[in-house]
Each structure stands twice: as structure tokens, then as C-alpha cells.
Amino acid sequence: MPKPEILDPQGQAVAGALARLGVTVAGVRQGKHFELDVDDEIDDETLQRIAGNLLANPVIEDWTVRRIGNEP
Amino acid sequence: MPKPEILDPQGQAVAGALARLGVTVAGVRQGKHFELDVDDEIDDETLQRIAGNLLANPVIEDWTVRRIGNEP
């Protein structure tokens, strides 16, 4: 997700399109979403490192890691 | 998120980069993430309609809507 102080033209385009469709939103931000299929052995620290060093650009993006189970 | 049967070259590139860094993952899928700042009055049905008609391409993408509160 782009940091709050970073311009987000894609999000602004979505907000404009919504307004033309009659839905008023206070704001839209567009970011990326990655789903990694990993072994349980990979610890949270490794996942944080992957997210911060490889997937996100920490200069302009905020990021969060969420570990979800493998639902049956 | 691209549907399982849809090729995801960006996800594959990330998986390859991770492998070169010594982290083995079973798979990576890359999708989009939107955060909408909306009034509480907007109901879930409207949000589902926004997501399915405007934000996602339902031919090639799966999507979910998650409503989160405005944490203080």
C-alpha cells in the first residue's frame, strides 16, 4: 500500500470512477497483495524479511504480513 | 487475486527471485488490494457490487471484501 504521503493516481482514478457511478467515497488507495504458499517451518521473521526486502519498496510503501492457515 | 487457472507471471517471477535468495516457497500469487474509505451507511451489498463490477475483473480474478473498522 502506498504510504499516505505518496500520490496514488490509480486510487484516484478509482475514486473518480466511483463518483461518476454515484458512490461517494472519502478515498481509495490501491496497493499490491501477495499470497505465498510456504511451509509451516518458515518463521515470522523470514516472512517479514521477504515482505520488506523483496516484495515491498519500503521507501514508498507500507506493508503488513498476515499468516493464514490452510483451511480444509 | 488471479484465479487458480490463470497464469500469473508476476507471481512466478517473485517465486523465482525467492528461490535464488534461498527461500523455497510452494507458490506465489500476486493480486491487487484496494482500501476504500467509506461511510458506515454504505452497505455490504454496495461494497460487493463495487468490488465485483468496478475493481475486479470477474472473468480472471477472485475477490473478497473485508470491512475493517476505523481504529483510533
Structural summary, described in words:
The structure is a homodimer of 72-residue chains. Chain A is α+β, with helices and mostly antiparallel strands and 72 residues long. The first copy, chain A, has helices spanning 9-20, 44-55, and one strand at 27-37. The interface between A and B is medium-sized, with 28 and 28 residues.
Topology readout:
The structure is a homodimer of 72-residue chains.
Chain A: H1 9-20, E1 27-37, H2 44-55
Short synopsis of the structure:
2 copies of one chain form a homodimer. Chain A is an alpha+beta fold and 72 residues long. Chain A contains 2 helices and 1 strand, in the order H-E-H.
Strand/helix succession of chain A: HEH
Helical residue percent of chain A?
A: 25-40%
Mean pLDDT of chain A: 90
Count the beta strands of chain A.
1
Strand proportion of chain A: 15-25%
Rough shape of chain A?
elongated
